[in-house]
Design brief:
By secondary structure, the chain is mainly beta. Helices cover 14% and strands 49% of the residues. The N and C termini lie far apart (42 Å).
Amino acid sequence: MVNKTILYGFLVADPEARHTKTGKCICSLRIAHKENYKDDSKEPLYISVDVWDKQGETCAKVFKKGSSVIVDGRLSTDSYQNKEGQKVTKTFIVADKVSFVPRFEKSEKTSAQI
């Protein structure tokens, strides 16, 4: 069975880094993904991403809210009980690789050439 996810989107918040008891870094990203950016009627899909170890440390230092990224990883789930005692299941991506994607602003000259 294959569990592979590749996602392009924008960070909706600054990365949040934390460390496990053994000192490993986990950086949490929240990404907004829209299937069709030209169709404003569709709401974006908000996805949580966990980035581990050195790559997580790098993401925490380099990325900020609004950064555009490509995430290559796998889907995972985690279950826990909330304060009311109800079971909550969270689906997220565990990143194998996160890449920065530069954003290019359109100018009148650029759009006329297209």
